[in-house]
Each structure stands twice: as C-alpha cells, then as structure tokens.
Amino acid sequence: MSQHVLIAGGGIVGCLTAMELVSRGCQVTIVERNQIASQTSGESSWAGAGIVFPLLPWLYSDHVNVLTSYGAESYGAICQRLLDETGIDPQLITSGFLLLPEFDRAAALAWCGKNQLPVQPVRASAFGVQSLSGEDALWLPTVSQVRPPCLMHALRAWLEQNNVRLLEHTALEPLGETASLREWRTTSGKVLQADKFIVTSGAWSFDLLKQVASKLRIKPMRGQIVLYKPERQLEQVVYREGFYLVPRRDGYLLAGSTLEDVGFDPSTTPNVREEICAKAEAIMPDLKGLPIIKHWSGLRPGTPENMPVIAQHPEVENLYLNTGHFRYGLTMGPASARLVAAMVCGETPWTNPAPFALPQ
Ligand SMILES: Cc1cc2nc3c(=O)[nH]c(=O)nc-3n(C[C@H](O)[C@H](O)[C@H](O)COP(=O)(O)OP(=O)(O)OC[C@H]3O[C@@H](n4cnc5c(N)ncnc54)[C@H](O)[C@@H]3O)c2cc1C
Fold it and tell me: pLDDT by residue (tens digit) across 100-126?
C-alpha cells in the first residue's frame, strides 16, 4: 500500500512537495487553513514578485544557490507540464534582469563567470530606464519570471486532477510534545491521520512547531508591492538597490518590495506606498502621476541567511520540515520539494541535505 503523507500548508512549497510525492506514488493530503492560490492573511506565495532568481546571488551561501539554481532550471518543465495538463498558464517568461548600480561589480561578474550565467555590461538608457550613476548596468538575459497567482492556480488544478485531497479552510493546531506522530488535530477538533507529516506552513511554521522545534528560527518578514499599468511597458525585470520593477505580459508592472519586521501584520501602509512609488518613478519617470491599480503585502518565512530547513525531525518520528525559504521560496521550491520527497520516500537525496538540518 502506498504511504499517506499529510502536508501542513498549501503555499508554493506545500504544492510543489505534493507534486513530487504524487509522482512517487504517495497518497497526499494538503491541509490549508485558507484557500490554496488565494490571499487571505498574508500568505507569501500569492504575493510574491515571481522572479526566478535570487536577486544578488553572490550575497548568499553556496547552499542557498544550489537550491535556487536547481529551481531556476526546473521551472521550464514544471510550467509546461502545468499548462499542458491543466490549461492554466503560469506565465513563465525569460524577461532577463537588468541590474542597475550601485552594486558590487567585481563580485557580480565573478559569480556569473563561475556559474556560467550570461552577463553583459550595458547602458541603462538602452533599456528605457534611468540610472542614478554614470556606471554601466549589468544585463543578465537568461533570468526568468513567473506569475505567482497563475502558478498557484495551475498547481491547485493539477493537484486536484491527480487526486490530492485538498482540505481547505482547515487549520491545524500547534503540535504538542511527542516522540511519534500518527495524527494531527485541527482547530475544529477533527483528527487527521497519516503515515508521515510535512510542515510547509511558511511564516507560521514556528507557531505550529514551538513545542517540538524550539530552535527553529522562522519569523514573518512583510513585503509590500504596488501595481501599475503604464502606457509604455518594460521588457525586463529591473533591479536597483533592494528594489525591483517586474513587467507582466498583459501590461501590468509590479514595483516593490519591502523587508519589514512587523510580526504577523499583513496590512499595507500609505508611507510604504509612497516610498515604493518614489523609487519606481526614479527608475521610470513616466510612472509619475499614474494611478495605483493595487497595493498588497505578503509575509515571507524569514530565516537567518535565507537558509530553509529541509529535514526529517531528529526526534519526532514521521515528522519532516520544508520551510523557511524567506525571500526565494518560489525559486527554491522545486529543489526543496524534491529533496524532502526523497527523504520521505527513502531515496538517495539529489544533494547533501546536511546544511538544511533543523537547528539543535
Ligand atoms: C512581496 C514578496 C515578494 C517576493 N518575491 C519573490 C520572488 O520574486 N521570487 C521568489 O523566489 N520568492 C519571492 N518571495 C518569497 C516567496 O514568496 C516565499 O518564500 C514563498 O512563497 C514561501 O512559500 P511557503 O509555501 O513556504 O509559504 P506560504 O505561501 O506563506 O504558505 C504557507 C501556507 O501555510 C498555511 N498555514 C499556516 N498555518 C497553518 C495552519 N495552522 N494550518 C493549515 N495551514 C496553515 C498558510 O495559510 C499558507 O497558505 C516573495 C515574497 C513576498 C512577500
């Protein structure tokens, strides 16, 4: 009989994990306290910008970059499969990434060289944007982006088609101390049984696991995004000093985002909106005076050094974690899903999981 795996949390990480487990013949249930592919209380996956690249990869450890590079390579096949099998297009496009100064040029060029990522010095004006510096920008033509709400809808449809049980509007209780997990209670008193359990609850993971993983360091980090519909659209993602503009195929332009340590508060704020607009207009002056179509926020699962925890719990039998992907959960999702699925199914993992162990 195939093993039954319960996944706690239906964001991008939970959904990609379910996809991997289905392909290994597991019976899978996802428990999601809201609705998959929606945004109710700050879920990160719907809210993200969808850049399939870790912005400034030279700032991160090789461990993080192993996951982001694997993820970036996987999206072509994942998105094609989702489109073919569900008819929903996640809108993966290789729009490229224009990096405006200031940045560490030597580190950027060295990293791109070492990782064979095509890169070219260019003038920002050739791309119709303004640089505040006289220095060259860098053009990374192979960087891609996906549209998170479309990706999430496609994943949800695929999981339904493949008999994954989606228990939505069902919240799990925090786990109590235990040595072996066979069942997990919901807040409405239901008892859910499974052979194995994987926590993919994003920013809320520590709340669920406090009693059994007291050293897990995950906290919400809010990010706000503003949406424009400019008359002249950009072709590429543009990044300058912690801020980006992301053009969508249908003419919308995302501007963001922020990194705010404000707890579980998913609201948007007028001062941040002004800040974002000022930064966006400095890069693209024709945005001045345009109406803001939408303004939203999401709560990232923040972790030190952007290191996720992808591990079997060392003491609680049958409990696994795949969480804490912070700024790059979409990019790292395919890699971490494959890694945790290998652990659950007793396969040899595709990369060494030791760096992603639960802190003790
Ligand atoms: C503004 C912004 C921009 C971003 N841009 C990018 C980007 O360009 N590229 C990139 O790679 N990443 C980006 N990210 C980061 C990325 O979105 C996250 O790393 C990723 O979404 C994390 O996915 P997750 O599934 O772990 O978390 P979530 O999407 O938050 O999912 C966790 C789920 O668990 C559910 N849950 C929580 N508690 C319970 C419970 N008790 N019972 C049942 N369910 C529960 C929640 O409702 C939620 O749906 C961005 C994030 C933000 C906020």
Answer: 999 999 999 999 999 999 999 999 999
The 10s digit of each residue's pLDDT in 221-239 is: 999 999 999 999 999 999 9
pLDDT band with cut points at 50, 70 and 90 for residue 134: confident
pLDDT at 65: 97
- Quote the ligand 1 centre to 11 CA distance (angstroms): 6
Using the atom order of ligand 1, give the atom closest to the CA of residue 298.
Answer: 53
Name the β-bridge partners of 134.
Answer: none
Instruction: State residue 179's pLDDT score.
Output: 84
Ligand 1 pocket check for 29: Cβ under 6 Å: no
* pTM passes above 0.90: yes
Radius of gyration of the chain (CA): 20
Between strands 319-323 and 309-312, the pairing is: antiparallel
Could you state, in order of their start, the residue ranges of all structural domains in the chain? 4-88+148-218+304-356, 97-144+221-301
Architecture of the 4-88+148-218+304-356 domain: 3-Layer(bba) Sandwich (3.50)
User: Is 49 close to ligand 1, i.e. is its CB under 6 Å away?
Assistant: yes
* Calpha distance 233→282 (Å, rounded): 16
Q: How far is the CA of 242 from the centre of ligand 1 (A)?
A: 19
CATH topology of domain 97-144+221-301: D-Amino Acid Oxidase; Chain A, domain 2 (3.30.9)
Comparing CA positions, the residue from 117, 338, 42 lying closest to residue 356 is 338
Which of the listed residues 36, 38, 44, 97 should we mutate to test ligand 1's pocket, taking the one with most ligand atoms within 8 A of CB? 44
